[in-house]
Amino acid sequence: MSARRVWKKYGDLDPYFGVISHEAFRAHNLTTDAKDEFYRTGERELAEHLRLVKSVAPLKFRRLAVDFGCGVGRLTFPLASHYERVYGVDISTGMLAQLARNAGERGISNIECRLTIKDIPLQADLIISRIVFQHIPIAEGLQTIVLLWEKLAQEGVLSVEVLLRSDFGLPMKAARWIRDHVPLTSAVINAAKHRPLWQGGMQMNVYPLNDLVGILYDLSATKIGLLRTRPDYMHDGAIVVAMKE
Q1: Residues 143-156 pLDDT 10s
Q2: Which of 52, 96, 124, 223 gets the highest tally of CB atoms within 10 A of its CB?
Q3: Measured at the alpha carbon of residue 78, what is the angle toward residues 20 and 126, in degrees to the nearest 5?
């Protein structure tokens, strides 16, 4: 199953677990307290994200921000308290439906949802993306960086997290490739582990840093910085920050 189909399935059937793979966030386990904690993780993560970004490039304007790969709005909601207007972009209509419903319940009125970055009519002062690009195939992800850059205003800042190193050995990489590319393999694994048959594995794509930085150079980006992240115990990543001047 392709990465897009996997994500859309999670959006329709298990949206919170699709974002953070913790049993408390499973659809059949989700309580009000668990949901509140889910969104509190976003508040903490965004505060740290903005602090790190400002160590590389100034955030000069607070007019419009974009959360790319927003899911159910874990980072979008706290971002809305910092910017006049926020767009949440996600390919999953199920995820966006949850975001819109929760925004209404929370009385947040300055967020709009879009399915693609091309659907955003204005240029943004800040574009963020966390734990998203690792699930996007590398060639598509690098093209997406260019599309995001085109939606950035002058003196705007792009800040996206990518994986740069994996501790997976060759046997694990081979097993994950088979899981993702050989029909029915994922369903057989899920049946053996008593999980929903539709549940697909998330790709964990490691991006070539030279290619990524080369694209930013070609786009005339300035104030380029790498801020180390550790998404899980098997991967090293970085928030890539770049300013458009």
Answers
A1: 999 999 999 999 99
A2: 124
A3: 100
Structure tokens, 1 = 């199953």
Domain boundaries, the chain: 3-166+205-243
The dihedral through the CA atoms of 162, 102, 42, 204 has a sign that is: negative
Q: What is the CATH number of domain 3-166+205-243?
A: 3.40.50.150
SS3 212: helix
What tokens were used for 25? 């966030």
* pLDDT at residue 195 is higher than 80: no
How far, in Å, CA of 218 to CA of 211, rounded?
A: 10
Could you give the C-alpha distances from 220 to 80, 139, 149, 151, 227, in angstroms and in order? 29, 20, 10, 15, 20
**CA 90/CA 95 separation, integer angstroms:** 7
75-100, pLDDT tens digit by residue? 999 999 999 999 999 999 999 999 99
